[in-house]
Design a protein that fits this description.
Blueprint: E1 7-12, H1 17-21, H2 25-28, E2 33-39, E3 44-50, H3 53-61, E4 71-76, H4 82-99, E5 103-104, H5 119-135, H6 143-147, H7 150-153, H8 162-176, E6 182-187, H9 193-204, H10 220-233, E7 239-242, H11 246-257, E8 267-268, E9 278-283, H12 299-308, H13 317-323, E10 325-332, H14 345-353, E11 357-362, H15 371-382, E12 399-402, H16 406-420, E13 423-427, E14 444-446, E15 449-451, E16 470-471, H17 473-476, E17 481-488, E18 492-495, E19 500-503, H18 511-514, H19 520-535, E20 538-546, H20 549-556, E21 583-587, E22 606-609, E23 620-625, E24 638-644, E25 654-658, E26 671-683, E27 686-695, E28 706-709, H21 710-715, E29 717-725
Parallel strand pairs: 3-5, 6-10, 6-11, 7-8, 7-9, 9-10, 12-20, 13-16, 13-17, 17-20, 21-23
Antiparallel strand pairs: 1-4, 2-3, 2-4, 14-15, 18-19, 21-22, 23-24, 24-29, 25-26, 25-29, 26-27, 27-28
Helix pairs in contact: 4-5, 8-10
Protein name: GIY-YIG domain-containing protein
Pfam families: Peptidase_S24, SLFN-g3_helicase
Domain GIY-YIG: 30-104
């Protein structure tokens, strides 16, 4: 490919611009052009792309808001095409919004073809464009710095996944439904809960005519109609984003400050909502809402309870939210509740069971590059559910390594921080925080190496000396890292005889984390939640150091070391399992239907070991099954073995099926796992299904039988027959 003729031309933005544009050949020939309008005094900018530049500039000059801008920069290249300029426009919106020099007048991210020809080549071109814009004073920060910034990670200028778009639809429908007051969106770490919360704020605070609904793709018309109706009902919505954690709240406040239409005052703590009633309250990290049990500072809690007329001993911050809003949106993950002051899961269970509450899952993994396979592995590792045949975890997309020494962990974290920034060490609360009262004293001693806990609680992740300190759950929950060094402390061990994680509470020093906890099983649950949350903080990979010898021996079975150990294979491909163990493909239920075809290349998916009782892999595959609809047989998050369906009777069997006209509420996809039953009609021409019934097998309430007739039954596709949980 020849070198692109890239040019950025600066022209004053006023009515005289048309004479100069006539000399621009790309404008005369209707060639795709990307442009930036800005004003240094107002600190405002607008990004666009067009093939009819003259007409577009005339439109902007007649627009009251954009006509105040004074400079125009036109980006041209002989290699531009429509897909490329749409993508460059979208990237400029995302990066200029997060750069912070200008406040964008754009209302959303614009259109972008995610899979156009030579997209990677145009990304390299974009990096060249960005460097030139920095030289022209349009941008300040490097792409690397912006990628690691909170303004970029939590910006509402994002393209949503299908999972998130469906979430938006359900939220908007709930806001319009007079019989529904609440929606609970359940998603684990990294499923895009915070971005969705901010996107909703931006959507409802942007004039309808300024928002580009084409970014929603196939959902464009539906979301446009719903948004129009919601704006008719709430023309000036009184909204609050409740963020229970102080540090994360401060971070999101800064994000709101830099987004047009949003105000920092919209981000509040739980006690702030006692001051007024709201149309809509959105709660991010709702699992961290509190009750009075085990709080060390009761004053603000007691004051808010009194203002709202609640009994401070019986009611919780969740009760406050429900009272102070007409409509409530809660982003919730039971497994990120980490201490006894968090609202008990039973209260959320009661809320979800109410007739005026909608419950929906968020399942797409947007943070960890290891995807849901890695998330499932971490869950099963910490709950000792991995089969002996599993071997060691390996992913082509994610680095997970066990460190031989604490020095090795420190070295790798600092190396990654030098290369890509935002790499941090995090530990369980297994050492007292001595430096809190004596800054000259270290806190953590491992193998003769002394380390200090985080010196600040506020936005520690981004603080100056963070790479040399050790954070904890309270300073990292809600944040993204590139790499993490996770230290499992003295408080967590392993019993080989019972195959159980055990907690040594005498080594657990989070006083608020164990205050009032009399049940050892409850404390264990909190600590398991903490380590699961920590192990899901990093985008690219985790390095793990285990203090306890017994737990280390257990982890050695399932995590590969950084360096080969004696009698251990040096080829990373050999660390996943013994070569003699047969392996089968592990598919994601959110994949396209083609993922289950016979032509699917196993090299393109992860694999899991096949139990030794199976002598052949023919027709066998595995899937992660999420949700509680089959929990009598299949625990939530289990990896299950299936055999491809070759016909024959399926009555009474558990099957994996593809639905054509509905989505499974657990997986959020068009696939579901249920017990299969059918009835048939016999005719002279043969037989056909009269009804197909898909039955949940669950202890949980709210799951209904799926009954299909007619074309729905005819078009149902059975993918596989359930064999066992792996």
């Amino acid at each position: 490919m020849s070198e692109p003729e890239l040019e950025i031309k600066e022209i004053a933005f006023n009515k005289a611009i048309f004479l100069q544009l006539e000399t621009l050949s790309q404008a005369r020939n209707f060639w795709p052009i990307v442009y930036i309008l800005n004003d240094g005094t107002l600190r405002e900018a607008y990004v666009g792309e067009t093939t009819d530049l003259l007409a577009r500039m005339a439109t902007h000059l007649s627009n009251g808001e954009k006509s105040r801008l004074t400079e125009a920069h036109f980006i041209t290249s002989n290699r531009f095409n429509k897909s490329a300029t749409l993508d460059i426009e979208s990237n400029l919106i995302k990066y200029i919004a997060a750069d912070g020099k200008f406040r964008l007048l754009n209302c959303n991210v614009g259109l972008s073809n995610h899979n156009y020809y030579q997209k990677q080549w145009y990304w390299e071109l974009f990096k060249d464009i960005w460097s030139r814009l920095r030289g022209l004073g349009i941008a300040r920060h490097s792409i690397k710095d912006i990628d690691n910034s909170a303004l970029f990670k939590y910006s509402p200028y994002k393209s949503l996944t299908k999972d998130q778009k469906r979430g938006i639809i359900l939220i908007l429908q709930m806001l319009l439904n007079p019989y529904k007051r609440n929606i609970v969106l359940e998603g684990g770490a990294g499923t895009g809960k915070t971005v969705l919360a901010l996107f909703l704020f931006k959507l409802l605070h942007t004039p309808l005519e300024e928002f580009n609904f084409a970014t929603f793709g196939e959902y464009e018309e539906k979301i446009l109609d719903l948004t129009r109706a919601v704006k008719g009902k709430y023309p000036d919505p009184q909204m609050a984003l409740v963020v229970p954690m102080t540090s994360f709240r401060a971070t999101l406040t800064r994000v709101f400050k830099n987004v047009k239409g949003l105000k920092p005052s919209m981000v509040v703590g739980p006690s702030d909502i006692a001051k007024k009633h709201f149309d809509i309250i959105i709660v991010d990290e709702a699992h961290r809402l509190r009750w009075r049990k085990s709080l060390t500072n009761y004053l603000s809690f007691d004051t808010a309870s009194r203002q709202l007329g609640f009994d401070k001993h019986r009611h919780t911050e969740l009760d406050w939210v429900l009272k102070q809003s007409d409509k409530t949106v809660l982003f919730y993950d039971k497994e990120q509740s980490i201490k006894p002051a968090d609202v008990p899961a039973e209260q959320f269970t009661s809320l979800k069971a109410r007739s005026d509450t909608i419950v929906t899952p968020l399942v797409s993994q947007l943070r960890v590059k290891g995807g849901n396979d890695y998330v499932s592995f971490v869950h099963r590792l910490l709950h000792t559910q991995l089969p002996k045949e599993y071997g060691r975890f390996y992913s082509k997309r994610y680095i997970l390594r066990l460190c031989n020494s604490i020095e090795e962990l420190i070295q790798h974290v600092k190396q990654h921080d030098d290369e890509s920034s935002l790499s941090r060490m995090i530990a369980g609360f297994s050492w007292p925080w001595r430096s809190k009262t004596n800054p000259m004293q270290a806190d953590i001693e491992i193998e003769g190496k002394w380390l200090k806990w985080n010196v600040t609680n506020s936005d520690w992740i981004n603080s100056a000396n963070a790479v040399n300190e050790v954070g904890c759950i309270h300073t990292t929950q809600g944040y993204d890292l590139n790499f993490a060094g996770i230290i499992l402390g003295k408080e967590i061990s392993y019993n080989e005889k019972t195959n159980e994680i055990v907690i040594l509470k005498q080594h657990y020093y989070d006083s608020n984390g164990k205050k009032g906890v009399e049940d050892d099983a409850e404390l264990k649950e909190y600590i398991i939640h903490i380590y699961k949350t920590l192990l899901l903080r990093a985008i690219e990979g985790c390095y793990v150091y285990v203090v306890d010898d017994k737990l280390r021996a257990y982890f050695e079975k399932h995590l590969p070391y950084i360096e080969p150990q004696p009698n251990e294979a040096s080829d990373p491909a050999d660390t996943i399992a013994d070569k003699s163990i047969l392996r089968i493909p592990l598919y994601n239920l959110q994949a396209a239907a083609g993922a289950f075809s016979n032509e699917q290349q196993v090299d393109n998916v992860d694999t899991v070991p096949l139990p030794s009782k199976y002598k052949s892999t023919e027709g066998l595959f595995a899937c992660a099954v999420v949700g509680e609809s089959m929990n009598k047989v299949i625990p939530n998050g289990s990896i299950c073995l299936f055999r491809r369906d070759d016909g024959g009777s399926r009555n009474g069997k558990i099957v994996l099926v593809e639905l054509t006209d509905m989505q499974d509420p657990d997986s959020g996809s068009y696939y579901t796992v249920k017990e299969y039953h059918s009835t048939k009609n016999t005719t002279p021409e043969g037989w056909q299904h009269a009804t197909i019934t898909l039955k949940p097998l669950t202890h949980a309430e709210g799951y209904k039988v799926i009954k299909l007739t007619g074309n729905e039954a005819k078009n149902l596709r059975v993918i596989g027959l359930f064999e066992q949980v792996l």
